[in-house]
Design brief:
- 26% of the residues lie in helices and 24% in strands.
- By secondary structure, it is an alpha/beta fold.
- The strands form two sheets. The chain has a seven-stranded mixed sheet, with helices on both faces.
- Strand 7 and strand 8 form a beta hairpin.
- Helix 2 crosses helix 4.
- It is globular and about 40 Å long.
- The chain starts with a strand and ends with a helix.
- The model has no long low-confidence stretch (mean pLDDT 90).
Length: 189
Amino acid sequence: MEKNITGIILAGGKSARMGTDKGFITLNQITFTQHIINSLSPIVDEIIIISNNENYDRFGVKRIPDCVSNFGPVAGVYSGLKASKTDYNIIVSCDAPKVDLEVFKPLLKERNNCYDVVQYIVNTKTTPLIAMYHKKCINIFELAVQNKIHQLRFVLEQLNCKTLIASDEIKPKLVNINTPVDLKQYNIC
């Protein structure tokens, strides 16, 4: 059955604060990237990794290079939407290894509504890199790249977004592991 959803994993960052590529860090002997692939697989038609790093080819899913190098998540989202063949796209950064089906279900429930983006909010912070994007957003992202707009939150202000309040069960799964301190804090190392 066609699900009309693509899973897009953003793995194009420099990982400067971590000092090593975050997508290859392990949690319970499984890389962050493989955790995300495992979580997305039951609900998507295809998984795409956005990265210039050929080492991501080992995961056996399509890898697409960033359309603009060293531009950040705006270019990553744009590259993913450009490569996607589906209307709906779950975008997850490679530093979010705790996402699972329970995180994605509420996003998917909003599929047939008219939102460009469906994301969570935890306390006062939104999660644009664990969110569902409609393919129709591509034009706004293309304009942002052309105009050298790097701030993802600014781009989202131009779109029709729905923000879901994360439940207590989902909140701990919406963490991004950016630094060695984060690894310790979330007992990942």
